[in-house]
Amino acid sequence: MRSRSLPLRRRGVKTKKKSRGQSIVEFMVLLPVLLMMLSGLIEFGFLLNYYLDVIDAAREAARFAANDDPLHNDATGVYQDPNCQFYLRTQTVTEQSLNIGSGGQISLNPASDDIIISAFSVLGGTVDKRYPVITTGCPALNVVSGAVSRYANHTTGLDTTGDIEAKLNPGAPNTGMVSVEIYYDYYMVLGLPWIRAFVPDPVTLWAYSIMPNVNVEPTPTPVP
Questions:
Q1: Is residue 8 in some structural domain?
Q2: Whole-model pTM?
Q3: Is 48 inside any structural domain?
Q4: Any domain includes 224
């Protein structure tokens, strides 16, 4: 009886070894695919983190702009369009918010990135005016399509009145609004070739925020 049981035991040992060897081979075949997927998740995790920082900066800058006056000239006290200082202040706050909010990891590249600021007067649910209208006395501003561009690398993504009106609630009252847009080129942290084969490097991130501003409501021009 004992002599008959020995071959069965040996056969079981061989089967286990064969199963282990097959599992190792299968794991080694799948390992590169798993590593590629893991590295992709890490890269897109970095990208999402940067994008959230850009969104937060746009929102913070728009909050600041909502309490400022796009139509008032700080130097003379005369109401006119546009006001250099309003746009320059908002641009500065946007860059500071990007730098502080991201822990210093985001700083705009003047050759590719941009900040775009605009103000709107909404009358009867439609855009009545868009500021700035002219650039007289404000040579430092780059005005394209009714919006101020920090570095003149991009145009506004809210380039038509329909883009703004689509974001209004039906029956919205007459109001004024300011918008802050940020364009930021995200360069991959890992920069692995199998990710670049499917995703462009850099990836241009665009975020915007719109806030109400009483100073551009569709009312008669105030008298200083």
A1: yes
A2: 0.80
A3: yes
A4: no
